[in-house]
Structures are given as structure tokens and as C-alpha cells.
Give the backbone structure.
Amino acid sequence: MRLLTGIQPSGDLHIGNYFGSIKQMVEAQKESETFAFIANYHAMSSGNGGQRLANLTMQTATDFLALGIDPQKSIFWVQSDVKEVLELYWILSAFTPMGLLERAHSYKDKTAKGITANHSLFSYPVLMAADILLFSPDIVPVGKDQIQHVEIARDIAIRFNNEYGDILKIPEFKIQEEVATVPGTDGQKMSKSYGNTVNIFGEEKAQLKTIKKIVTQNVAMEEPKEFEGCNVYNMAKLFLSNKELLALQERYKKGGEGHGHFKLYLADVMWEYFGNFRKKREYYMNHQDEVRMILDEGAKKAKNFALPMIEQIRNATGIHY
Ligand code: ADP
Ligand code: TRP
């Protein structure tokens, strides 16, 4: 079973990213052939570029390695290091009706918000189709917002195959249903765009400051407190064993402690949870040359899959003459 996923290098990773996606990706490495790449061309469609994009690409690669992407088990590379994807993007464009892209939610949502669309934002699903189809994965694990993009990839692949025979593998998507939405400091879905994130790799002091901002009910110190629906409790749940969770529930029920105490506890638990990842990250931060080497190796391995596929496509489409 081959899994493929792309990761946008768009900023500091938060615990919603970890529990909603990265953790599953790391676990999937055990039983599947995993392909994971940093989607740096994609990041350009939302205005990232220049030194900032270069830095974010290295930062994201470093963070993913620290969090458990294992280059022995996965093929891990940067999108732009396998340029064949751009050739396929163009070829697939000829199999992409305008209407298919005009109906894409993410494009419609962004333009509805007043973001001036450029062509890269519009044609983003075609590049995503190329990302997928170049490597023939069985499954593309995605969040709900990306389902339509995989459907577009399927649609394009079917049109291409109708013309040129069974060359492209039609991918399936897998929704990460079992993962609950991680709440942010204000109780809404945690997201960079809402400014309510708790980052995985913040400084300890900054981390505590963010956790102190978590919105809680105003209840006197001595009173018992509700843990159901409490934003601090809901976040702590992600990090605790059943036994620890029951103990925390008891503390809520007993009274005598304020939400400030629970926040300090959450900060401690979280700091400890990511301790080993932090050490690994420090290592990679001090050995960026090693990160580059891993990415180069990954790109070579990815090319071993991409080259025969693009050759077959060039032959079929008459690009080879
Ligand atoms: P953001 O909303 O902060 O921009 P992204 O859209 O870059 O995050 O998300 C990257 C991955 O992390 C996606 O797979 C997404 O489903 C997952 N993810 C992001 N926020 C959450 C959350 N609050 N709960 C669960 N999963 C999340
Ligand atoms: N569009 C995806 C996102 O924003 C990232 C991505 C790019 C991707 N290419 C992909 C995901 C191919 C899966 C497969 O999260």
C-alpha cells in the first residue's frame, strides 16, 4: 500500500497539525510505503516567496524529521527537487476543463474573501494532481478541505487515460475521520488563520504565556469546576493517559484550585510530551547539512519513481518525437 502526502511549508507547526495529521503520518510509516514531500511550489500560490519561503522549507523539513518522519522508512523530499512534476502539471492542464477548477471550493472561498486570484491559485489543483499522479499512490490521506482536490486529480487522470490508455493510477483519498478537531486557545478550531494556536516548538516562556491565554470560565477558586467543555481540559486530554485524565477530572470536581493551576499543569505536561522531539529538533537545527543530505537522498529516490512515469507519459503524448 503506497501513501502520498504533501505538506505546505507555511509556518510554525501547532498541536492541531500534530494530532490532526503528523502523528498519523508517522504511524503510517510502520505499515505503508510512505511518500511525503514539502510542497514549496504550492506555498507560492498564497504569496510566500523569497528568502522566507527558503527558510520555511528548511524549517518544515527540520520539524517533520524531529517529529518522526523517518527517511529510512519514508521517501521524504522537497517538491521542487523533482522538476518532472512541473512537466506533468502542464500536460495535465490539457486534460483539465476550466469548469472543474472554477468549481474548486478552496479557490472560491479565497476569492470570496477578497483575495485577488492569480493563476497559481486557480491552477493549484492541477499541480496537486501532478504531485499525486507522478507517484501512483494507492491512497492520499487528507483533511476534509482537500477531498475535492483529490477528486479533481481522479477526474483528470480518467480523462488522460481515456485518451492514452491505462497509464495513470486512479488514487483514492482517505479522510482522517477518527481525529477530533483540536481546539485553539479560544475554543474554536486551532488554526494559524485564527491566531489561536499553541505551537509545538515554542520557547518555554512563550508557550506558558500562550497557555495562560486559553479562555476559561470565571469560577471562584474554592468552587468545583466543570471539566467537560473546558478548553484547558480539552487540550490536556491530548497528552494524558486515561489514569492521568481521571486524576485531572478529580481535581476539577474537588475545587480548591483555579484554572490557572490547570494551565500550569497543561504547560508542564505538554513540555514533557514534546521533550524528545525538541532534542531531536535541536540536533537537526545544528546539523542543517544533514537535513539537506536527507532531502537530496529523498529527491533521488522520488526521481526513481518519477522518471519512468514521465517517460511513459512523454512517449504516449508525443512529446518524444
Ligand atoms: P492551519 O489551519 O493552521 O493553516 P493547515 O491547514 O496547514 O493548518 O493544516 C495542516 C494539517 O493539519 C492538515 O492535515 C489539517 O487537517 C491538520 N490540522 C490543522 N488544524 C487542525 C486542528 N485544529 N485539529 C485537527 N487537525 C488539524
Ligand atoms: N494541498 C495540500 C494542503 O494544502 C498540500 C498538498 C500539495 C498535497 N500537494 C499534495 C496533499 C498532494 C496531498 C497530495 O494541505
Remarks:
- The mean pLDDT is 95.
